Amino acid sequence: MHINLEFRGRWVDIFLNLLLIGILSTITLGLYMPWGYARWKRMVVSNSYFDKRPLQFDGTGGQAFVEFLIIGALSLITLGLYAILGFAGVRMLRWEYAHTILPTGQRLEYRGTAIDLFFENFVLLFFSVLTLGIYFFWGYARLRRHIITNSALDGEPLEFAGTGTQFFVIALLNAILTAITLGFYAVLGFAALRQFRWDIDNTLVPLPMRSPAPMPVISPPLSALSGGIPDMEQRVRPTGQMYSAAEPSDDR
């Protein structure tokens, strides 16, 4: 049995977080970007609900910084092939899913491979160019389905119900409303909000076994190096304590 996730974020959550991340990244000459990335993921995950309860994200900016550093170094050593062939994308997906916790305590797991992710991105790019961009919407839905179905909970894969036609309609509505409002619909986060709802509401998670506390995270290789780096945005929580629907995150 699978249950749909539900995104309950607001446009103001998206707009204010993007604004803050943009300002701090500019002030710090890009140094804040890993912390901004972790902050963004925390905003998305904490506004995603499973069985009427919010998910939690415990990845930190320090951890993201180490992942970025490793990806940058390996991409430099391999003349960019580490990123182009999908290894960087898989590394970040494994980090993101390993730090995503359901209300019952289980962590998600990404099991996809670099070659499969590379192939999906290649198909998306190739046919989008071949069809002058028309295929992009169906290709994005295909890529999203690939990522979701290669993610698992307790060994059982997630499912994705979204279609390319649905995404095309969403993109068309976003384009029309953005044009009518002279760009404000997109700038203020309404367009992104509509897409987030499609992405997350079409994600189906298997019903998990109950767990009293979050399971320990199994990090990607070398990510343990981040243990001594403090996170600028992470809050201290007692072990096992979760966010609740009645307790809004101060990261919003």
Radius of gyration: 18 Å
State the low-pLDDT regions, or none. Answer: 223-252
Order of helices and strands: EHHEEEHHHEEHHEEEHHHE
Main-sheet strand order equals: 3-2-1-10-9
Rounded average pLDDT: 87
How would you sum up the global shape? globular
Level of helix content? Answer: 40-55%
DSSP summary: helix tally: 10
Biggest sheet architecture: 5 strands, antiparallel
The fraction of residues assigned to DSSP E strands is 5-15%
Structurally, how many domains make up the residues?
1
Distance between the termini: 32 Å
Total number of strands: 10
SSE class: alpha+beta
How is this structure best described in words?
- This protein has one domain.
- It is built from 10 helices and 10 strands.
- Helices cover about 50% and strands about 10% of the residues.
- The strands form 3 sheets. It has a 5-stranded antiparallel beta sheet with strand order 3-2-1-10-9. Strands 6-7-8 form a 3-stranded antiparallel beta sheet.
- A hairpin with a 2-residue loop joins β7 and β8.
- The radius of gyration is 18 Å and the shape is globular.
- With about 250 residues, the protein is an alpha+beta fold.
- α1 runs antiparallel to α2, α6 runs antiparallel to α7 and α7 packs across α8.
